[in-house]
Design a protein that fits this description.
The complex is a heterodimer. Chain A is of the alpha+beta class. Chain A is 36% helix and 17% strand. Chain A contains 18 helices and 21 strands. Chain A has helices spanning 6-28, 33-41, 65-78, 101-109, 143-153, 226-240, 251-258, 260-275, 287-296, 317-326, 354-367, 390-399, 430-439, 443-449, 515-529, 536-543, 546-553, 558-562; strands at residues 45-47, 52-56, 62-64, 82-85, 91-93, 127-128, 168-171, 185-191, 197-203, 215-222, 327-328, 335-340, 351-353, 371-374, 380-386, 414-415, 454-457, 471-478, 481-488, 504-505, 510-511. The longest helix of chain A has 23 residues, at 6-28. Chain A starts with 5 loop residues before the first helix and ends with a helix. By secondary structure, chain B is an alpha/beta fold. Helices cover 25% and strands 18% of the residues of chain B. Chain B is built from five helices and nine strands. Chain B has helices spanning 34-40, 84-95, 113-119, 132-138, 161-172; strands spanning 2-3, 12-13, 15-16, 19-20, 30-33, 50-54, 72-77, 101-106, 123-124. In chain B, a hairpin with a 2-residue loop joins strand 3 (15-16) and strand 4 (19-20). Classes of the chains: A alpha+beta, B alpha/beta. At the A-B interface, helix 1, helix 2 and helix 6 of A face helix 2, helix 3, helix 4 and helix 5 of B.
């Protein structure tokens, strides 16, 4: 993991001190609530339905067991004994009183953590592949570059008040596990024919009201120049992005409206930075700096190739299922990466109690050199597990409630906190997730359904990524009632559907009482009509929406009676 | 950072009852709109201290040839959360080498000061309800930053290692800058 330097450490403490000054002025009445808002947001403090929500950054998803224990302790001391993991690899608290917020920031700073730029119209926390540095299909380890980007984007003075939020994802493996095409900027590390490392740069992706998949703006930016290229991308956006309409302010709208004209402007700006700016070229990343940062991510010395322990063919079914779904190939012989499933009956997707957090930290210490990852699909992952430890890890993870063998299956659903917590939400997500989890309690059935991404958002802001779900559920509000729109065929761009695409709406919204039946009918239709070995997403592509739509429509009771059409 | 007391400002606009005078009479210390400047620039005498106020949609690179003649450029923040003028300031200082006064005007809050300073502003006309003390305090929290900016032209990684360490040690000792 990255090791904070004295500079980094002082920096997060300075940020906490700066925030305390702002908070005190707000409490004293000299900084209005409206003007405090953008300042607190840029430190991760929202005001939500019940209390402020704090979003803590987990840069590119990497977190230590000590940090996890601190989050657990903070949830006990200031919150209600649980946290929530997000699709952007962050961690959220829900019940911390605002007057305590500066204290909490200092506590976070003490373990090299913060909430800087986890919200606000600025460059957000950088996300990456949860398997970075251990993935068997890795081309280039993205973590050193992600850290360089973290530093570059942190309190960038020119880009703190952009037209709207700006999200960057970076990946360096054959499979895109970071949904890069759904980001404002997606960076794909590549090697060219000469073996040099560079970035394929995508721009203009995003969900929300207008889902758009990012387009390639540059096929190969040499890694040394990536900060300069991003400076050009963001500066042109800062200048020309719309500020008159919140819903049209994301860079995706600018890219869609201007197309090649935007690309040309960025490339011209990039050339000017290199050729004209005083010391412009000094922003190129020197090899020594990359080496300094990369040294933090060197493979731990104790991790050496070792004999691979195969799973016995007569091992219990439950264990074999866990191996199949939750255990992943590794770069180092004899090692595995293991997902701790944070999707289980009785708890909201991505929620972990303080005790469960401590248990995860213990598992990381015992089996993974004290390191964990927060994954894009709201789970935890242990990156350094020896194959001969898998059986012991399985038992320990099961005891801690982390061994649901469902990674990539329909019950490994993504869901935002929804209307139970979020002030923006139009409908609740958690009860829908709960009911579906209950109905899909039969593991044989879930395994038979195979790979399915089920994504649930409580509103059009799309924090639950419904657009990219093979099955997407979107909560909408009509006349104070919760309704749910269903989309099919979306993809985040990972392997089973490598082309990122937004799902298509299958018809009018369903009533809350109908939505679970409708989803079950869709799953039944797949089961009945799939060809041998055909995955859900492939069946949707082959069959089209109609058979699924017809089956889902047959579940309508309330909506059919009222002639609901919207 | 210079804080402008708008009641005792050395600079004056050239406007009448109907708004900005289309062809202002040359005099020292005039702060012109871009339209006024375009109207008079070809005949404007040398030697007069002249300023131009730019809206935040102006491409500052179009002013490059005029910059040596300008002692003041005022950039506008119609809303404090509209960050376009930061990019204008950066380009003026880092690309175009503008050396005159760069002033932030409009909805200027004390919490903008660190950003203003780092993008190259050296003067700020705070909104009337803002406190200069609080503004100055905002400039003291950080001893250094990661990026290059208009003041520190090298990113952290291009500065000598001992320089960055010194800064951190300095801070650890409880010093404020």
């Amino acid at each position: 993991m990255y090791r904070y330097t004295d500079f980094d450490r002082q920096f997060v403490h300075a940020r906490a001190a700066q925030y305390r000054d702002q908070l005190e002025r707000n409490l004293a009445g000299t900084l209005t609530d409206d003007e405090f808002r953008p300042l607190r947001l840029q430190n991760g403090w929202y005001i939500q339905r019940h209390a402020p929500m704090l979003r803590v950054a987990v840069p590119y998803g990497a977190i230590s067991s000590a940090q996890v224990r601190t989050l657990a302790a903070l949830s006990r001391e200031f919150d209600r004994d649980y946290v929530h993991f997000t699709t952007r690899q962050n961690v959220q608290f829900n019940w911390i009183p605002l007057v305590k917020s500066a204290d909490v920031m200092e506590r976070l700073a003490a373990v090299d953590m913060h909430g800087i730029q986890t919200s606000g119209a600025c460059i957000r926390n950088i996300t990456s592949d949860a398997l970075a540095g251990v993935a068997a299909d890795e081309i280039v380890d993205p973590r050193p570059y992600a850290e360089v980007l973290r530093q570059w984007s942190t309190l960038h003075p020119e880009f703190a008040f952009l037209p709207r939020k700006f999200k960057i994802a970076i990946t360096g493996a054959a499979e895109d596990r970071a949904a890069t095409a759904w980001h404002d900027v997606g960076l794909e590390l590549q090697r060219n024919a000469a073996g040099e490392v560079g970035f394929r740069v995508l721009v203009g992706g995003g969900m929300g009201r207008t889902p758009i998949v990012a387009s390639e703006i540059h096929a190969f930016v040499p890694w040394q120049q990536i900060l300069l290229y991003l400076e050009a991308v963001v500066r042109v956006y800062n200048r020309f992005g719309r500020r008159d309409n919140l819903y049209k302010a994301r860079i995706k709208i600018l890219v869609k409206a201007e197309g090649q004209k935007y690309f040309d402007a960025v490339n011209a700006e990039f050339a000017k930075i290199l050729e004209r700016d005083v010391n412009g070229a000094s922003q190129q990343i020197p090899q020594a700096e990359l080496d300094r940062i990369a040294a933090c991510f060197a493979r731990p010395a104790s991790v050496q190739p070792r004999a691979d322990v195969a799973v016995a063919a007569d091992a219990p079914l439950a264990y074999r299922r866990w191996i199949e779904r939750n255990v992943h190939a590794h770069q180092v012989a004899g090692y595995r990466a293991v997902t701790l499933s944070v999707k289980r009956a009785g708890q909201a997707p991505g929620d972990a109690t303080a005790d469960q957090m401590d248990a995860a930290a213990d598992l990381a210490d015992r089996f993974s050199l004290g390191e964990l990852r927060v994954t894009h699909d709201q789970n935890l992952l242990l990156p350094w597990v020896q194959s001969d430890d898998l059986a012991a890890l399985y038992e320990a993870a099961k005891a801690a409630g982390y061994a649901t063998p469902n990674i990539g299956l329909v019950t490994d659903m993504i869901a935002c906190p929804g209307g139970d917590f979020c002030a923006l939400a139009n409908a609740r997500s958690i009860p829908v997730a709960e009911e579906l989890t209950e109905r899909l309690a039969d593991l044989d059935e879930v395994f038979d359904l195979g790979d399915i991404d089920l994504h649930i958002s409580g509103c059009i802001n799309s924090c639950g990524h419904h657009h990219s779900g093979h099955i997407g559920i979107l909560g909408v509000d009509k006349d104070g009632t919760e309704w749910y729109q269903v989309t099919l065929g979306g993809s985040d761009g990972s392997n089973h559907a490598p082309q990122a695409v937004a799902g298509k709406v299958i018809g009018p919204s369903f009533a809350a009482s109908e939505i679970s039946d409708a989803v079950e009918a869709i799953l039944d239709t797949y089961r009945a009509q799939r060809s041998s070995g055909e995955k859900f997403i492939d069946a949707v592509k082959r069959l089209g929406l109609e058979p699924f739509k017809a089956a889902a429509n047959a579940c309508r009771t309330t909506t059919a009676r009222t002639g609901e059409t919207a | 950072m210079k804080f402008i007391d708008t009641h005792h400002d050395a600079w004056h606009t050239a406007s009448g009852e109907d708004g900005p005078t289309p062809h202002p009479v040359p005099r020292d210390g005039l702060l012109l709109t871009l339209e006024q400047w375009h109207a008079v620039r070809d005949t404007w005498p040398a030697g007069l201290r002249t300023g131009v106020s730019l809206t935040n949609t102006v491409d500052v690179e179009t002013l490059e040839a005029d910059l040596p003649r300008l002692a003041l450029i005022a950039l506008q923040f119609p809303k404090w959360t509209d960050g376009r003028a930061y990019s204008q300031a950066h380009v003026l200082r880092v690309r175009l080498g503008y050396r005159g006064e760069l002033r932030a005007t409009g909805d200027v809050l004390v919490d903008m000061l660190p950003l203003l300073q780092r993008t190259g502003f050296d003067a700020a006309a705070l909104r009337h309800d803002q406190s200069v003390d609080a503004a100055e305090r905002q400039l003291g929290f950080f001893a250094g930053h990661y990026q290059r900016d208009a003041l520190e032209r090298r990113p952290l990684f291009a500065r000598p290692a001992d320089e960055a360490t010194h800064t951190a040690e300095f801070l650890q000792e409880g010093a404020s800058i």
